[in-house]
Write a structure and sequence with these properties.
The structure is a single chain. This protein has 393 residues and is of the alpha/beta class. The chain has two domains: 255 residues, 3-Layer(aba) Sandwich (Rossmann fold); 89 residues, formyl-coa transferase, domain 3 (2-Layer Sandwich). It is 35% helix and 15% strand. The protein has 16 helices and 13 strands. The strands form four sheets. A six-stranded parallel sheet has the order 5-2-1-6-7-8, sandwiched between helices. The protein has a three-stranded antiparallel sheet with strand order 9-10-11, with helices on one face. A two-stranded antiparallel sheet has the order 3-4. A hairpin with a 3-residue loop joins strand 12 and strand 13. The chain starts with 8 loop residues before the first strand and ends in a 5-residue tail after the last helix.
Length: 393
């Protein structure tokens, strides 16, 4: 069955994380994604991490549902090959530093003159202007600049702490994929393409603003400022481990107190502060000792019966066997042609009429070069010449 983006061709000029994740999402949804790599290949092909038979696990996840061609874009004729590919495409996605695409003649202004319907998505670290533009930027730098690291600060040492995941890369990929599909929808109405710029910094700010940056929302001398809670309070030690609870509404708090065999502490003036609100520090201290009177399993049962949002804190090796993950078939297993049996997260958006699927494993370097060049009209002799001149591999 055709995916939601069936019939859409995407030229993927991206490397590392954010760009490949973006294009893999579109590939999962049925787009024909052509990954264009340099002669040395995407750095992620040989990145540190779990690998088998030369296949790195992270690369396999981010580059499924793609075909691959290897082109030396800086060589004589290399950028011409890419332009021929783009002439057959709906979308180009790139994540090079500012200026690189212009030097290759593959920038939006140049390409759109010949291809006015082109959607050109540019993913970058901190944008194309400003004092940081042009800097080499990775996820940790964006976590630092955006405030992610600051909000994770250790409350005892005040040392900023990085989220132990490439969170800014991943959320940027989601924003870029949504932006591309929105631009494709706009083209259906206008008939023309456009450039879609997505910076990791702005994606991070957008995600942080609704809660973590709420004190910076209102301007003026009368701007309100409230103390921000810490999510570490949602993690509670039990008699034999840890558990996560997140009571928000009054009924949930009341259910929590009943489950812990406590009175309604919100009504106890000992837990009120001078402003008439709740002294959360004192409240959480009392709750902490109460949690430790029960085992994790006991609390999961008690809190669920009381309607309190609760969940086990799974170690990474426990996630794959979590009963909810198993019941939803959230992880798919399949056989990779040379990496063996693999397991990956399924495409998270479930379409009732145009389902997403993993229909192609991550490609070998240059695996589809001949096939793709033939599709754009090059004959065998021309392809042989390009290979001899090492324009393509």
């Amino acid at each position: 069955m055709a995916g939601a983006l069936d019939g859409t061709r995407i030229i993927d000029l991206t490397t590392i994380f954010s760009g490949p994740i973006c294009t893999s999402i579109l590939g999962d949804q049925g787009a024909d994604v052509i990954k264009v790599e340099s002669p040395t290949g995407d750095w992620m092909r040989t990145a540190p991490g779990a690998q088998r038979n030369g296949v790195v696990g992270s690369f396999a996840m981010m580059n499924r549902n793609k075909r691959a061609i290897s082109v030396d874009m800086a060589s004589d004729g290399g950028s011409d090959i890419v332009r021929q590919l783009i002439a057959t495409a709906d979308v180009v996605v790139e994540n090079y530093r500012p200026g690189v695409m212009e030097r290759l003649g593959l920038d939006y202004e140049t390409l759109s003159r010949a291809h006015p319907g082109l959607i050109y998505a540019s993913i970058n670290g901190v944008g194309h202007t400003g004092p940081y533009a042009g800097r080499r930027v990775y996820d940790a730098i964006v976590q630092a600049v955006s405030g992610f690291a600051s909000l994770q600060s250790d409350p005892h040492t005040e040392k900023p702490v990085m989220i132990n995941s490439l969170i800014c890369d991943k959320l940027t990929a989601l924003v870029a994929a949504q932006g591309i599909t929105a631009a494709l929808t706009a083209r259906q109405h206008s008939g023309v393409g456009q450039r879609v710029d997505v910076s990791m910094l702005e994606a991070a700010l957008f995600v942080l603003w609704p809660d973590n940056m709420v004190n910076d929302t209102f301007l003026g001398d009368d701007a309100p400022e409230v103390p921000l809670g810490s999510h570490e309070n949602f993690v509670r030690k039990t008699a034999d481990g840890y558990i996560c609870t997140m009571p928000i509404q009054a009924a949930e708090w009341q259910g929590l107190f009943r489950a812990l065999e406590l009175p309604n502490l919100l009504e106890n003036t000992e837990y009120h502060n001078d402003a008439g609100g709740i002294d959360l520090l004192k409240l959480y201290e009392t709750l902490g000792s109460a949690y430790e009177q029960f085992t994790t399993d006991e609390l999961l049962d008690r809190l669920e019966r009381e309607g309190v949002p609760v969940g086990p804190i799974n170690a990474r090796d426990e996630v794959v066997n979590d009963p909810q993950v198993v019941a939803m078939e959230s992880l798919w297993e399949f056989d990779h042609p040379f990496a063996g049996r693999m397991r990956q997260a399924r495409p998270p958006a479930r379409f009732s009429k145009t389902p997403s699927e993993i229909f192609r494993c991550s490609p070998e370097h240059g695996e589809h070069t001949t096939e793709i060049l033939q599709e754009v009209g090059l004959d065998a002799d021309t392809i042989k010449d390009l290979r001899q001149r090492r324009v393509v591999l």
